[in-house]
Amino acid sequence: MKVLIVEDDLDTAQFIARGLEQSGDSATHCDNAEQALLSASTHPFDVIIFDRLLPSMDGLDAVRILRQSKIVTPIIMLTALSETSDRVAGLNAGADDYLVKPFAFSELYARLKALTRRQPLTPKALELVVADLTLERTTRQVKRADTHIDLMPKEYQILEYLMLNPKQLVTKTMLLEQVWGFSFDPKTSLVQTHVSRLRNKIDKPFTTELIKTVRGSGYIISD
Amino acid sequence: MTHMKNYHWVGKVLKITLTAWVLVCSMLIAISYLLLQQIKTQQTDEFIEMQSEVTHLYNEDGLNALLDEYELSHRPIWHKHESDERLDEEGLLFSLYDKNTLLLGSTELTITPVDEAIWQKYDSTLDEPISALYIHFTLDERYSLAILQPLTHHYIDTRNTLISINIWFTALSWLPILFIIFSITQQYAVRIVRIKNALSKVAESPDSERIDCDNTPDELNALVISLNAMLDDISDLHTTMKTMSVGIAHDLKTPLTRVANRLQCMQQDITNPDMLETHLDKASSDLHTVIATFNNLVRLNAIESGKHKNGFVELNLSSTILDLAQSYEPVFIDTGRNLEISIVDDVFCLADEDLINQLVCNLLENALEYSSQDAQVWIRLQNHIDGALLQVGDNGPGISVQDRSHVFDKFYRADISRSKPGNGLGLSIVKAICKVHRGEIQLLEHQKGAVFNIELPLLSQQ
């Protein structure tokens, strides 16, 4: 994964770059919007990490310019602002995802993976498959090893999102955003409770466990 | 604020004083004018009477008798200088003409006849041009008589007196007016200084002082009332700030101290990878608590600023709340509690969905945290007299009487030791969300547990 980091705070940029390099990805760093626009239009990147607050230009405007010049590279915006309206403004400008500082590297990495994976895998795929587990998106039917499994609506949505990002870390925050549409973090174990119920239905009766917990970070679905 | 319109008496007093002054001055001038006019009319009447007397005498006794009567048998002729002197001494000048020839009298009067008595200017060498009554009438076909009578001394004296009275009155009447203005300003200045002094004291400590205020309905008292209301607000704010600062200090100090301790432990266990990992996990979890507190503060601030109002939509409260409650049902079951959901269909409200989600989440989280282990918790939504009524409650143990009034305060926690997780902002956020939707939240009294009633106005009211 080739990643362009546009971030004026050197510490944050190094923190991200080191994490990426440890995971075997390559990172290029720019500390201003002008240089970023130039790099993004001359080199092919898989994903761009864009800080919202840059010294000379608002990150939103920079993203808008990139999109106007037909650069479709997925963009994730980083920001200190956490309000829904700010998030919506970011997405409207052409960003694909929005992450609030401070964040765990695993959270950022999971989102980067989700963004880069989304392209080859058509989001409109009608059938999702992981090992012997299948999910029909038109009929909302879930089967494992030919056994039909009944899921509650939230359980279905969680599973669908996990299966759209197979072998990728999906964090608790991502699930809260995608499944519940929350822009805030409820204190208790809302996500954990539902994931554990989902597991009781799709993993417990079978020999192999498909949904794995990454402690303190989130969940991965894989065979 | 409501009777603000009556608060202009100072302006009124000044206006009335000035109007009265202008009126009195105008009346004085008018009276003087009328008085002088009257004197003039009187003089004209006397003048005409004199004319008829002369005519009568002439008609009865002839010219020589007339001349004898006025001791003019020597038929004097007065030129300019003599005419002026005579006019000055006698207050009368005349000329008698035989056809168009001057028979006797002044050479200074015009020959052309003037039948009616008129006022005209006469240029005297002794004095300034004077205003005088003039007539030139015929006695018969042969003789005609011209008479000139300047304004009487009585008129001139009266006029001068009246002018002085007017000037003096105009000049002197300013003194009481200035005095009135001065005393009002002085009174104001004293009161403003008093307000200023009170405010200086308030600046040192907001709770100490309120500004005195009597019942006079004027601008300054209106200002004082507003200032006092503002000071009450500020002092509330000050108290809130104090509670908040203490709250922030406590809520941040505890996890930060733990992080500091973990860092020291890491230094000691630097060679032991397993221990290091435990320390890292714990430190990281404590830092998350700090960040969560800050996020909640920022969120609370954003809600209170009212910027969400732009994103309000017609929201089906029933389906939003039902969805959320059903999501929470397993969480309650897993903790041994029971969540009873009773929601009337299609209750609508103009609202921000994200905020309504958080409102319900925070109330349910609150019930999860503070209700007893096997509590019955319920969430109910129904239409109310003029709004939607949401109730979230549990059957125990409830909130103690001394804590009831503080549950919505920022960083207030019934549990003084702050040993339970959470940061005391949950219900403050709930209250802020209610406020931004123009709703009301109430903690019901005389209940076994904590029961919150939330009234949200329906579409039509917003």
TrEMBL record, chain A:
Domain OmpR/PhoB-type, by residue range, is: 125-223
Q: Does the keyword Isomerase apply?
A: no
Looking up Pfam families in the UniProt record yields: Response_reg (PF00072), Trans_reg_C (PF00486)
Fetch the CDD domains from UniProt: trans_reg_C
In the record, which positions carry 4-aspartylphosphate?
D51
Q: Is Repeat among this UniProt entry's keywords?
A: no
Tell me the keywords, alphabetical order.
DNA-binding, Phosphoprotein, Transcription, Transcription regulation, Two-component regulatory system
Q: Which domain of life is it from?
A: Bacteria
**Residue intervals of the Response regulatory domain:** 2-116
Specify the DNA-binding region ranges.
125-223
Q: What is this protein called?
A: Two-component system, OmpR family, response regulator
Q: Which organism is it from?
A: Pseudoalteromonas aurantia 208
UniProtKB/TrEMBL annotation, chain B:
Q: Which UniProt keywords apply?
A: Kinase, Membrane, Phosphoprotein, Transferase, Transmembrane, Transmembrane helix, Two-component regulatory system
Which superkingdom? Bacteria
Annotated catalysed reactions: ATP + protein L-histidine = ADP + protein N-phospho-L-histidine
Localization? Membrane
Q: Where is the signal peptide?
A: none
Keyword Membrane carried by entry: yes
**EC number(s) stated in the UniProt entry for this protein:** 2.7.13.3
The record ties this protein, via SMART domains, to:
HATPase_c, HisKA
Domain Histidine kinase: start-end pairs? 247-460
List membrane-spanning regions.
16-36, 165-184
The cross-references to InterPro entries, in alphabetical order and at most eight, read: HAMP_dom, HATPase_C_sf, HATPase_dom, His_kinase_dom, HisK_dim/P_dom, HisK_dim/P_sf, Sig_transdc_His_kin-like_C, TCS_sensor_his_kinase
Q: Please give the name of this protein.
A: histidine kinase
Q: Which organism is it from?
A: Pseudoalteromonas aurantia 208
